[in-house]
Amino acid sequence: MYFDGAVNSMGSGIGVVLISPDGHYYPVAAKIDFPCTNNVAEYEACILGLQAAIDFKVKELEVFGDSMLTIFQTLGQWKTKDAKLVPYHEYLEKLTENFEDILFTYTPRMTNQFADALATLASMVSITRENLIEPLEIEIAEGPAHCNAIEASEAKPWYEDIKNLLRTGQYPPFADRRDRKTLRRLAIHYFLSGEILYRRSFDSTLLRCIDEHESRRLMEEVHGGNSFNARVRHRDFNPGDLVLRKVLHVTSDSRGKFSYKYDGPFVVREVFSRGAVVLSDMDGIENALPVNADAIKKYYP
């Protein structure tokens, strides 16, 4: 067990990490909602960890902490003179009676980073009884998020697993824990409307997902020129035009369907030949990225 306490200008928090013999980590953290010193926070953290270990029915425990005072007082090498710490020391000794074998060891802060991070996080965030936070699950990101890819097969389109997860909540057969995590992370960027899957872009515009067959068909139409252009509804915008921008509201209406609405108005600052438009708000602050002309409509005050 590793424990640590944190007291700073934002508040106080304590963090504990229990590590099982097979290498599983069980983080525990708490926000301290009363005035305390650093030493009190360290005792609170150690006691929290011992209580968690007791709940796990642990009988043999090795405790590591970077608080020399807490460790050496518990080992009996230092006397407990501070009146605020005496009841903590007595209660901690009482908790140790629940273990068949328990060992306390001082460890430098560098080897106590996980517990320290949990304590610091708990001290800084605002937590109420209504928004209690479950233990964190931290994984290693081995590459940029945009490199996550799903391979297409002849039997189904590349987005089939995402679409099925949004529709049914079911994962593909034989998907392991890592596959499920990746799929959940990808799915939050997509939206299913009937049988059509869309991806949410940075400006809330929905991009329709297509498979390889549809992609080839569209490419042929683009290269064909006239047949494609004949079906495109052109929207003409000029610098200075007032427009409304389409946004997606994730709250359903009374019929249980999702609907589009618009926000704005915005001012057209620049128009590009391929349909991209740069907007600014009414105060002249320009948006960092352009939007597609299909996502806006003219506004008439």
Concise synopsis of the structure shown:
With 301 residues, the chain is of the alpha+beta class.
Please provide a written account of the structure.
GO terms for molecular function: nucleic acid binding; RNA-DNA hybrid ribonuclease activity. Residues 1-127 form the RNase H type-1 domain. This is RNase H type-1 domain-containing protein. The protein is α+β, with helices and mostly antiparallel strands. It has three domains: 2-124, Ribonuclease H-like superfamily/Ribonuclease H (Nucleotidyltransferase, domain 5, 2-Layer Sandwich); 159-224, no CATH class; 241-298, Roll (SH3 type barrels), CATH 2.30.30. It has eight helices and 13 strands. The strands form three sheets. Strands 3-2-1-4-5 form a five-stranded mixed sheet. The model is unreliable at 227-232 and 248-259 (pLDDT under 50).
Q: Catalogue the unreliable spans.
A: 227-232, 248-259
Fraction of residues in helices? 25-40%
End-to-end separation in angstroms reads 65 Å
Number of strands: 13
Strand order in space, largest sheet: 3-2-1-4-5
Q: Tell me, rounded to a whole number, the average pLDDT.
A: 79
Strand content: 25-35%
| CATH domain topology of the largest domain | Nucleotidyltransferase, domain 5
CATH homology group of the largest domain? Ribonuclease H-like superfamily/Ribonuclease H
The largest sheet is: 5 strands, mixed
As for the number of domains, it is 3
Structural class: alpha+beta
Series of secondary-structure elements, N-terminal to C-terminal? EEEHEHHEHHHEEEHHEEEEE
Shape: elongated
From the alpha carbons, calculate the radius of gyration and give it in angstroms.
29 Å
CATH class of the largest domain: Alpha Beta
**CATH architecture level-2 label of the largest domain:** 2-Layer Sandwich
Helix run count: 8
